[in-house]
Every structure is written in C-alpha cells, then in structure tokens.
Amino acid sequence: MAVTRPGEGPLICGTRACAGDQDGGRKSFHRLRDGSQEKELPVNGLMPDGLARERFLIAPVRAEGAGQVVILYDVSTGTAADLGERTEQGGIQVPAVARGDDRLLAYQVDDDLYVIDLAKIG
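Now predict its structure.
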C-alpha cells in the first residue's frame, strides 16, 4: 500500500517508490511508498510509464532557445541529460524503456541509434 494525499492523481508505483501528479497534472512528484522523501519532478504531467528502475524519468521539457527537448532525469541525483530529441513546435517522440527488467533505453536520432543501459548508471 502506498501513501496518497488529497488532490493527487493515480500513483505509478514500484516496489520502493511512487511517482504521480498533483494539481491536475501541473506538478509531478516522486517519493517513497511510505510518503517520505518527496521531490518535485521537472515536468508537468507524468508519462504513463512512470519511472524506469524507480529512478529515471524520460520526458519532454521546454528549454529556452531550443524548443521542446527530451531528457533523461535521475531523481536520486537531480541531474538531467539531453537525449538529443528536439522540436520547435508540434509533438515530440519520447523513447520508452524496454519492459521486462526495465533496464535498456534505445532510441534513434536521425541516422544514429543510441542504447543506454540504465543499470550501469551509478
């Protein structure tokens, strides 16, 4: 059972942590199932897959001067990496982590294929 609070949307939980939205999707958060260690996520509206390995968020964000970009955000360190996907307008393709062991993120930018092993990130 995970702790829920008034005004939250449905939680997406793993064995230790949950992610969810507040204020109708205007704020997203990550916290342990017991409700502790809550941190705000740098996106508005959580992706349906939630967090990969209960730690990584893959999501589009607005970047000044770059339009919309896709980031890999590490909730444990608060750091983000630009995955190279970007658009000035319209929709953007957000890669998904392969289901199963929740470990591999593979995506293509132009003619280049990228594979990130999330289990290797310390």
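The chain has a mean pLDDT of 86.
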